[in-house]
């Protein structure tokens, strides 16, 4: 449990190559280990070592191949090997190669030259680096920029890094990549006209973050950061126990009990300030219910606590059906059933996928087209605010209790949106209660580093991004968590909001935060949720995190000390 060490974020250097033969195909570059959870931060000892390296570099006259000045789009290509093991390192895969963006119609298509840009709907842009890299331009590449190093890292059947010879070449690559990504996502040439067509003038800050009104973000004052601590001092596993069967979902309660829905039934847990602990009670499903239908066909996947957590609803429903019920799990007359009361039926084009509600009942809805809509508590007929999104489908959405922040989950990143704006009378409101106009802050993206994305696995996607759990006005959620493969990934909310945070330096485009902690399990995680704030203890910054895998449930404390009692 916890994160391991990585050399991914350390600066690439050719220092050691000065002492190796130029005929060698690969040269190894070693770096001091740093923790992935604190990539942008550096301890005093690591800073001293970096200063020593920098001093050594200045004393050397580094030599580059003479033909680097004549090669079109010249770059150095590095490959990360060793994963997260102690022997992990970067190796120089190609001392001098070149990159280009080409149009491709499929994996075996050689493609046309990068100058022939245009959206024809049938082809897509591919990044080709020498003979070793050919990757479709997409968010799945998890491209990470290091502007101060003239470097980008990305994933493509491994973790690669490109090192550019000049700032101009680096900036040209970033601009080309972003244009190709826009076209692959939206199917339109990346012209100013088409960009305005997608984002509209009200959301120009999403397209050009450097001109966005970030005053609402800047109001978030980060608490003083302490020296980074080791993972085993920061994340502590309090409880772990086996479930009674394959876990389908987790339903945490704010009062005394929480519940796991598994293949056999509903398992009951008791809430403590160290996490949840099984009570030895399991309500099993009857395999002969519903007229002899099979257990597999009728096993519920989700549970919803209701009526002040005195009842649990297990059923499937379709709000378009006026009867409400699509499948009734229990035949008893007292079982809670969702019946149609009122609402608005949209005729077409919404692609609604998920929703969440604020403390006052306002609704945020995420869509397959990437849009996120805010509805007031009084009407669902028309959204007060509709964010354009970035093209990736929103698979899950969450919102803070006060409605000031919205968190959307996509397959490869989280998008954090500030809903605050100042109206014409100078009053601060949220986008749930009024139209935000053209002073809309640019969102922040929460991503994995390319190495962690690669370690998580190509087929593992982000799912179920949540804020920590607060249900009282005036209190602020403190963390965000998302699940990907065997990882539960935790961000500090206050740090993400801070515009001066180290993660955001030397970036181009929307600010992306890579500063997180990872809880690693030995099997794919079903769900990760923070317990209610009632269960936070005095020496912990947060209530325990509950992590459910198909066969186990664990409770993780963010405290550096074991809580008592």
UniProtKB/TrEMBL annotation:
<dbReference type="InterPro" id="IPR013863">
    <property type="entry name" value="VID27_C"/>
</dbReference>
<feature type="compositionally biased region" description="Acidic residues">
    <location>
        <begin position="11"/>
        <end position="29"/>
    </location>
</feature>
<dbReference type="InterPro" id="IPR011044">
    <property type="entry name" value="Quino_amine_DH_bsu"/>
</dbReference>
<dbReference type="Pfam" id="PF08553">
    <property type="entry name" value="VID27"/>
</dbReference>
<feature type="domain" description="Vacuolar import/degradation Vid27 C-terminal">
    <location>
        <begin position="342"/>
        <end position="505"/>
    </location>
</feature>
<dbReference type="InterPro" id="IPR015943">
    <property type="entry name" value="WD40/YVTN_repeat-like_dom_sf"/>
</dbReference>
<dbReference type="InterPro" id="IPR055559">
    <property type="entry name" value="CYPRO4_DUF7135"/>
</dbReference>
<feature type="domain" description="DUF7135">
    <location>
        <begin position="41"/>
        <end position="200"/>
    </location>
</feature>
<dbReference type="InterPro" id="IPR040458">
    <property type="entry name" value="Vid27"/>
</dbReference>
<protein>
    <recommendedName>
        <fullName>Vacuolar import/degradation Vid27 C-terminal domain-containing protein</fullName>
    </recommendedName>
</protein>
<feature type="region of interest" description="Disordered">
    <location>
        <begin position="1"/>
        <end position="50"/>
    </location>
</feature>
<dbReference type="Pfam" id="PF23581">
    <property type="entry name" value="DUF7135"/>
</dbReference>
């Amino acid at each position: 449990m916890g994160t391991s060490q990585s050399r991914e974020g350390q600066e690439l250097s050719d220092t050691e190559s000065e002492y190796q033969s130029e005929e060698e195909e690969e040269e190894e570059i070693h770096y001091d280990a740093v923790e992935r959870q604190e990539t942008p931060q550096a301890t005093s000892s690591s800073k001293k070592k970096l200063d020593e390296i920098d001093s050594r570099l200045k004393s050397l006259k580094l030599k580059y191949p003479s033909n680097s000045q004549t090669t079109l789009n010249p770059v150095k290509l590095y490959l990360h090997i060793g994963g997260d093991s102690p022997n992990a390192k970067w190796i120089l895969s190609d001392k001098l190669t070149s990159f280009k963006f080409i149009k491709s119609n499929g994996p075996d298509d050689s493609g046309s030259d990068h100058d022939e840009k245009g959206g024809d709907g049938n082809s897509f842009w591919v990044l080709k680096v020498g003979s070793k890299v050919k990757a479709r331009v997409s968010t799945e590449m998890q491209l990470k920029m290091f502007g101060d190093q003239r470097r980008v890292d990305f994933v493509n059947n491994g973790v690669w890094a490109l090192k550019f010879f000049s700032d101009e070449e680096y900036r040209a690559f970033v601009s080309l990549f972003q244009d190709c990504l826009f076209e692959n996502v939206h199917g339109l040439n990346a012209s100013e006209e088409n960009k305005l067509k997608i984002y509209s003038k009200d959301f120009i800050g999403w397209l050009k973050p450097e001109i966005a009104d970030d005053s609402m973000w800047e109001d978030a004052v980060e608490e003083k950061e302490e020296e980074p601590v080791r993972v085993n001092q920061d994340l502590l596993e309090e409880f772990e126990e086996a479930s009674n069967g394959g876990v389908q979902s987790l339903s945490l309660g704010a009062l005394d009990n929480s519940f796991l829905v598994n293949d056999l039934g509903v398992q009951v847990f008791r809430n403590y300030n160290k996490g949840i602990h099984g009570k030895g009670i399991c309500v099993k499903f009857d395999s002969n219910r519903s007229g002899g239908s099979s257990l597999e066909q009728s096993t519920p996947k989700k549970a919803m606590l209701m009526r002040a957590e005195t009842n649990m609803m297990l059923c499937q429903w379709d709000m378009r059906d006026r009867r409400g019920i699509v499948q009734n799990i229990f035949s008893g007359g007292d079982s809670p059933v969702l019946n149609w009361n009122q609402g608005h039926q949209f005729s077409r084009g919404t692609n609604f996928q998920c929703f969440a509600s604020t403390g006052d009942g306002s609704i945020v809805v995420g869509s397959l087209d990437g849009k996120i809509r805010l509805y007031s508590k009084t009407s669902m007929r028309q959204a007060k605010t509709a964010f354009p999104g970035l093209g990736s489908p929103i698979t899950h959405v969450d919102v803070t209790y006060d409605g000031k922040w919205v968190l959307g989950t996509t397959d490869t990143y989280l998008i954090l949106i500030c809903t605050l704006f100042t109206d014409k009378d100078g009053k601060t409101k949220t986008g749930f209660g009024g139209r935000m106009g053209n002073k809309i802050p640019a969102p922040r993206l929460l991503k994995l580093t390319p190495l962690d994305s690669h370690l998580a696995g190509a087929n593992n996607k982000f799912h179920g991004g949540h804020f920590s759990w607060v249900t009282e006005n005036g209190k602020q959620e403190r963390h965000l968590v998302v699940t990907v493969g065997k990882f539960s990934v935790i961000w500090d909310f206050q740090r993400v909001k801070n515009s001066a945070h180290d993660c955001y330096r030397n970036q181009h485009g929307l600010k992306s935060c890579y500063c997180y902690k990872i809880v690693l399990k030995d099997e794919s995680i079903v769900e990760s949720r923070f317990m209610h704030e009632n269960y936070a203890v005095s020496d912990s910054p947060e209530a325990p995190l509950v992590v459910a895998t198909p066969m186990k449930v664990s409770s993780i404390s963010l405290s550096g000390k074991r809580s008592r009692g």
